[in-house]
Structures are given as C-alpha cells and as structure tokens.
Amino acid sequence: MKKLMLLLCAGALVLAFAATAGVWSGKYKNLNASYLIYSGEPGERAAPTKSDRKIAIAVTGEPAREIFESLYPDEKDVTCTTERGERLRRKGDVWCSFRPSDGYKCFMGFNLRNGESHSGASC
To answer: Does the keyword section mention Signal (predicted)?
Structure first.
C-alpha cells in the first residue's frame, strides 16, 4: 500500500510539473516589439540612406522576459542607469535589461544592406 501511495504521489508531482512547465508547441508566439530603420551607429542614429540602412528591434513584455532568462548569467559590474536592481544580460549582439521601473526589454538589430547582426541599441 505504501508503494502504491508513493507511486501515485510521484505521478501527481510529474503531472503537476508538466502542467506548469508547458509543452513546447513549435508554433510562433506573438511578439511585443517596436523597430526603427536608421543609418549610423546605434548610439548616433540618423535618417536611413540608400547605402546605409539598419534595423533596431526592441522587444518588451513576456517575450523579453523569456529572452532575458535564456541569456544567463547577468553581466558583472555593467549597468546602463543608476536604477537600483537593474540587471543586464548579453550574448553576442542580443542584449536585454531588467529594470524594476519598466520591466524587461531586449534589443537586437541587423544591417539591411549586408545582413550582419548588431546590438540594435546602446545604453
């Protein structure tokens, strides 16, 4: 009887974990994002030109939180603001921030003339 109870409890825990973890569907999800097409560098943007066109993409909300959590660990001793509790994470040209005042934001970008990636933003 104890073995049966133990087995039932273990099964219930597995089912509860599976329900909260979610099942990967392989389907695209909606994205909270905005973009800017520009020329120049992320910190010194100008109007796009025929020969210099880049896109900066800013993702917010739940999608940004998912990206942020995928980019661990936090950057050490790097901040963009003086806000207490700010956290930054970066891998290559994808970087995200968490600020208690406005939540999660992630940035990425691409050069539309050659397809190369870039950070899409600067502090």
So the answer is: yes
The torsion defined by the Cα of 71, 65, 61 and 96, in degrees rounded to 10, comes to -30
Beta strands 44-46 and 54-60: pairing type? unpaired
What is the three-class DSSP state of 49? coil
Q: Which residue has the higher pLDDT, 12 or 103?
A: 103
Q: Contact, 84 vs 92, CB < 8 A?
A: no
The span from the CA of 77 to the CA of 122, in Å, is: 16
Residue 85, amino acid: G
Q: In angstroms, rounded to a whole number, what is the distance separating the alpha carbons of residues 74 and 35?
A: 25
Q: Counting Cβ atoms within 10 Å, is residue 106 exposed (0-12), middle (13-18) or buried (19+)?
A: buried
Q: What mean pLDDT is predicted for residues 11-34?
A: 70
**Whole-model pTM?**
0.77
**What is the C-alpha radius of gyration for the chain, rounded to an integer number of angstroms?**
21
